[in-house]
Amino acid sequence: DGHIKRPSNNFILFRKIAHDQKNQTPALSDYNERQFSQIIGKIWKGLSQGEREEYKQLGKEVAEMHKKMFPKYKYQPKRDK
């Protein structure tokens, strides 16, 4: 449909990385998505400022790549009618 998605924010990048690790770790495969999301949220809240800064930097890099790939992109949320 030609729709361009927004670049992922810091937490979403963190969650994607954690989800990839979950899929590669048999011990974590027992958790359903709801349980996993709750755990990831708690881990995110427990990260130090320095650890979060790494994801903030990653988020900036993703945003820059997105801007290069889609220079005319502008976030335009859809409004309910």
UniProtKB/TrEMBL annotation:
Residues 4-74 form the HMG box domain. One of its GO terms (molecular function) is DNA-binding transcription activator activity, RNA polymerase II-specific. It comes from Rhizophagus irregularis. Keywords: DNA-binding, Nucleus, Transcription. CDD domains: HMG-box_ROX1-like (cd01389). GO terms for cellular component: nucleus. InterPro entries: HMG_box_dom (IPR009071), HMG_box_dom_sf (IPR036910), SRY-related_HMG-box_TF-like (IPR050140). Gene3D superfamilies: High mobility group box domain (1.10.30.10). Pfam families: HMG_box (PF00505). Residues 4-74 bind DNA. This is HMG box domain-containing protein. One of its GO terms (biological process) is cell differentiation.
